[in-house]
């Protein structure tokens, strides 16, 4: 499918403005859950298989030298996209400004620009896939087709906030799926960046600020987390991408991931809200409830 197919139609993006994601959306209710981190790795894997993103990440990212720090900063940034209010737009602008200079030339002499419209859009489009896969495996039930469409329309707002070129954005979820599958099949490639990312996911390196003497303890504590993250990332990656990477996924693997997801889907809702959500998300939701209570008191005040 060509980018031209996305122009026009009922969802013309040029007719809409940038505005923060707010309460009442599925993003607001679910993006901040700690389960977000399980499939966030899948989105990053798919991003590093895109040639331009891979080349830029390979040269400029700290994921090899500070994998944990990079992951924490990335999650905090994503939380700002949804829960930051007006500052969400400032965060989007900050990231665009930061990426203006993140350009490189690969080993074949091809120049890659971080803000090229296709790769810039792909970063956010992979998020839709990861969210839907998260619901498929780690929620009590997968999203219905109507819910997928509704969530995708929310994601359109997020892409507008990041000034993604309208020509790169499918108008509906059905068009998005066709575009996504086409990119995975015909554009993504196995890269060394992807292989390094998977290796570091399985065995998290010691953060630079930690003394080397703590390495054995660090490995003992993080090994189970790394194996779980690797397993979930591979399991929620499209089969076409797994095949390109030469990674086998068996029927037994699929059953085990489904079983793991069943447990997580029932355990996480039992946690207190402060533990279910990442800190920025929790505080934003708490503040919104306070605002609603204040609004109710104001509306019911004696007159």
Defining traits:
303 residues, two-stranded antiparallel sheet, globular, 14 helices, 2% strand, 64% helix, mainly alpha
Structural description of this entry:
The longest helix is centred in the middle third of the chain and has 22 residues, at about 115-140. The protein has helices spanning about 25-30, 35-50, 50-60, 65-85, 85-100, 115-140, 145-160, 175-185, 190-200, 215-235, 240-245, 250-265, 275, 280-300; strands at about 105, 110-115. The chain is mainly alpha-helical. Helices cover about 65% and strands about 0% of the residues. The chain has 14 helices and 2 strands. The N and C termini lie far apart (about 60 Å).
Oligomer: single chain
What is the arithmetic mean of pLDDT?
A: 92
pLDDT < 50 stretches: 1-15
In one word, what is the shape?
A: globular
Briefly note the structural class of the backbone: mainly alpha
Helix content: 55-70%
Radius of gyration, Cα only, in angstroms?
A: 20 Å
Instruction: Name the strands of the widest sheet in spatial order.
Output: 1-2
* Continuous helix count: 14
Major beta sheet summary: 2 strands, antiparallel
Measured between the Cα atoms of the first and last residue, the distance is 61 Å
* SSE series: HHHHHEEHHHHHHHHH
Beta-strand portion reads: under 5%
**What's the count of strands?**
2
């Amino acid at each position: 499918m060509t980018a031209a197919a996305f122009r026009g139609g009922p969802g013309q993006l040029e007719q809409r403005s940038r505005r923060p994601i707010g309460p009442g959306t599925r993003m607001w209710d679910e993006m901040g859950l700690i389960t977000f981190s399980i499939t966030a790795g899948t989105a990053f894997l798919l991003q590093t298989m895109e040639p331009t993103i891979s080349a830029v990440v390979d040269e400029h990212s700290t994921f090899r030298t500070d994998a944990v720090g990079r992951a924490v900063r990335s999650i905090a940034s994503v939380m700002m996209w949804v829960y930051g209010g007006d500052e969400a737009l400032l965060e989007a602008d900050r990231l665009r400004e930061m990426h203006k200079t993140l350009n490189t030339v690969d080993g074949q002499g091809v120049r890659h620009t971080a803000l090229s419209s296709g790769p810039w859009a792909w970063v956010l489009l992979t998020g839709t896939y990861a969210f839907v896969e998260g619901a498929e495996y780690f929620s009590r039930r997968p999203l219905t087709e109507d819910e997928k469409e509704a969530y995708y329309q929310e994601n359109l707002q997020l892409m507008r906030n990041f000034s993604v070129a309208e020509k790169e954005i499918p108008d509906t979820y059905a068009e998005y799926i066709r575009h996504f599958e086409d990119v995975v099949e015909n554009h993504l490639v196995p890269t060394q960046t992807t292989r390094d990312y998977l290796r570091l996911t399985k065995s998290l390196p010691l953060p630079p600020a930690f003394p080397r003497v703590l390495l054995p303890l660090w490995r003992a504590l993080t090994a189970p987390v790394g194996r779980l993250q690797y397993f979930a990332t591979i399991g929620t990656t499209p089969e076409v991408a797994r095949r390109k990477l030469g990674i086998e996924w068996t029927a037994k693997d699929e059953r085990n991931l489904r079983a793991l997801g069943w447990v997580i889907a029932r355990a996480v809702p039992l946690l207190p809200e402060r533990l279910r959500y990442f800190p920025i998300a929790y505080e934003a939701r708490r503040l919104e409830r306070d605002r609603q209570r204040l609004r109710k008191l104001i509306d019911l005040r004696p007159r």
